[in-house]
Amino acid sequence: MTTSDDLAKQLEAFVGYLLCYDRVDRMNVAAELDLSVSQFKTLFILARELEPIPQRTLAESLGLSDAATGRAVDTLVGRGMVHRQADQSDRRVKRVSLAEAGRAAIEELERDQRARLRDFVSSLDSADASRLHEALRPIVARPDLRAHLEERTS
Fold first, then answer.
1. Exposed, middle or buried by CB within 10 Å (0-12, 13-18, 19+), for 47?
2. Signal peptide span per the entry (predicted)?
3. Bridging pattern class, strands 53-54 and 82-86
4. Domains of the chain by residue range
5. Which parts of the chain fold into alpha helices (H)?
6. Assigned CATH topology for domain 4-123
7. pTM of the prediction?
8. pLDDT digits (tens, 9 = 90+) for 62-80
9. What's phi and psi for 62, nearest 5 deg?
10. For labeling, which of 29, 30, 91, 97 is most exposed (least CB within 10 Å)?
């Protein structure tokens, strides 16, 4: 019988492998785009948002100071990847959102990530692929995961 600790260790190894499988390529893309880690994270955070968010909220999500976040946003605005505008009800508040160029960069990264995951799945023999599919089916059917998947595909 598998203990929770054994399963957690196996899951950690598997997820860690999948993340590392993708991480080098993501860092290469960030380097090609000449983005700092903070700028890269900014694009991913803004990609999840449906509406412009206060720059202060972005700073909290990044775990950065307002000044450091402002510098990252300044660069991304200058490169046409992010929009920044004054809040209509409080002009002191700056709202930020992903511009089309930023969205295109994120979509390209996500396409590449899906391709790498397809490559990994293709490397499995059919029996392992079937077992993985059957094991994941009830897990991804959970309401919290289903909502996350729907959010990412909408």
1. middle
2. none
3. unpaired
4. 4-123, 125-154
5. 4-32, 37-48, 55-62, 66-78, 100-123, 126-140, 143-153
6. Arc Repressor Mutant, subunit A (1.10.10)
7. 0.74
8. 999 999 999 999 999 999 9
9. -80, -20
10. 91
